[in-house]
TrEMBL record:
Annotated segments matching region Disordered: 437-457
Organism of origin: Ixodes ricinus
Lineage: Eukaryota, Metazoa, Ecdysozoa, Arthropoda, Chelicerata
Keywords: Disulfide bond, Glycoprotein, Kinase, Membrane, Repeat, Signal, Transferase, Transmembrane, Transmembrane helix
Ig-like domain residues: 235-338
Protein name: Putative tyrosine protein kinase
Alphabetized GO MF terms: ATP binding; transmembrane receptor protein tyrosine kinase activity
Domain of life: Eukaryota
Keyword flag Methyltransferase: no
Pfam (any one): I-set
Amino acid sequence: MVLGVSSSWCLVLAQAILLCFGTSWCWATAVPRFQGVSMYNATHVSIVGEPNATRKLLPPEQFCQSLGCSCHLDQSLSCQLESDRIAAIPQLLDQDRANKITDINIENQRNFVELNEAQLQIYPKLKTLTIHRCGLKYVSPKAFFHNRDIQKIDLRYNEIEAITWTAIEGLGTIELLISDNELVCNCSAKWIQMKILQNSRIFGPLGNKIECQHPDQRSKTSLLSSYTIDGCDVPEVEVVNASAQVYERERVTLTCRGRGKPAPRVHWDTARVQAAPYELKTTSSVEEQHDSEGKLIGTIQVTTTELVLHRVDGTANGPLRCYADNLVGRSKADVNLTIFTPPRITSMKMGKRFNHHIQYDVVAYPMFNWSWFINDRPLERDPEKYNYIHQKTDTASYRGFLEFLSPISSVAGFYTLVVENEFGTANETLEVTFPGIPHNKNNNPPHRPPVPSGKPRIQEREPYVDVDIQQIPIIVTLSVLVVLVSVVGALVALRWCQFRQENYAADGTRFCAWLWLSMRPGGRRCFDRKRVVGKERIPLNMTRMVENPNYPNYFQDTMKNGKTVR
C-alpha cells in the first residue's frame, strides 16, 4: 500500500517536472519576439496549464539578456553572444522605446538567414545596422524602405549571394559594406561593378576589393571590378509622344517602351492619375538586332506598357514618368500631359494659424482669375481687414487664403469665391462667424446659379447698385406730387389766358391767346393767313374805331343814332 502511494507521488512529481521543462522551453522559443511568462509573478502556476492564466511581459532589458543581448534602449540594441537564438531582428513591443533605437548590432547568429523591411519597420530612426558572421543569405529588394535616415549598413562576413540596387533606392548618402560574402559574378552583381568603375564611395574605401564567385565554378573567385559580365545592361526607355494635350473628362492613351537585357519591367508612376479610372496594358516581344551591314547579331527583349486614362482629371496635369527596370538599373522618360480644365473648387474651409482665414483649393488649367464677394457684393481690398495669399502647388493645382486681420463684426458674413478661365467658371460660398459676435440673420446666403458643365461662355458680372428700400415710397410720393402740381399749374395758366382773351386784353396777352388757341382742337390752324375771323372776335371799342370816308352818310347817321345795320 505504501509502495503504491509512493509510486503515485513519484509519478505526479515526474509529470510536474516535465511540465515545468516544457513550459520553460515554450517561453524560451517565444523570447525572440519579447513575449514570455514571468515565472515569479504568474497568478496561477503554469504546471496546471489553465488557459486563462495571466501572463506578464518581461521588461525589454531582461529579454535582451535572456537572448544574450544588451539593450541600451536610449540608442542601441546589441546581440553578440553565440546563442543562435535569433532568426530575425528582435521586435520591441513598445513603439516609443523602439523609436529611440539608432544602432543595431547583431553577430554570431547562424539562424539569421533573411533581412526584410518588416523587421526594420519598427525602427524608423535607425542610422547604423551591423550584421556580422551570421547565416544571412537574402536581403529583400525593399529591405530599408522604412529607414530613410540610415547612413551605414555593414553586412560583411555573411553568406549573401545577391543584393539588388532597389534595396538602397531613395536613400541619401549611405555606406554599404558587403565584402567577404558569396556574391555571384552574374547580372545581379552588374550594378555593383558599375558603381565601382564609376569610383563611387558607396562601398567604402575597399570597395574595389570586393570579390565574386564564378557562376560555373563557385570555388573560384575574381575581383568584381575586373570580371567580364556579358548580356547585362541598363535598359533603354522611350515614350511614343513626349507631350499630349486633351480636355478634361476625355480619354487618352500614353505608350512607353523599354528594351534591354535582361528583359526590363516597364511601369508608369500613377500617383498623379489616382483621381480618375485608368488601366495598364503590358505586352512583350523580341526585337532583332543587326549590324551596319544588315547582318543579324542577336535579339533583345522589348516590353511595352500602355497607360489608358478614362475621363482624365485635371489633377493629372504635368509630367507623367515611365520607368524601365531590370537587375542592372533603371531608366526613365517623361510625358508632359496638358489637360485643359475649367476651374473647380475642391475644398473651402475655415482655419486659423496666426489669424482666422478661409483656405481654398482650386484645380484649373490654364491659370484662372479669382475674386471675392461678401453678401453678394464685391469685397473691398482693405489691407487693414484682409490679406490675400495665392500660391501654385502643382501644374494645375492652387491653394489660397483669405486672411482676416481683425475679427470684427464688419467682416462676418457669407463669403463667395468666384474663379474663372476661358473654359468655365465656378463659385463657392462659406459663412464666416467669429466667437462673441452675434449672427446677423438678415445676411442670407447668396443664391448663385449652378455652373454649367462643358465649356460655358463667361458672362460679365452686372454692377451692384445699392438702393435703400425704405426710400422708394418717399421718392414715388414726391414724384406724384410734382406731376400733379405741374398739371394743375398748367391748367390754371391756360384758363387765365382764356379769360384775358375773352375780355379783350391788351397786346401783352397775345402770347396767352396763341397758347390757348394752340391747345384747342384745330388750334394749329389759328395762325393760318387764309382763315376768316368772325366779327365777334374783333374788338369794337369806339375808342379804337376810325371813320371810313367811303361809307355813305346814311350809314354813319344810323350808327350814330344807335341803330344796328345788318
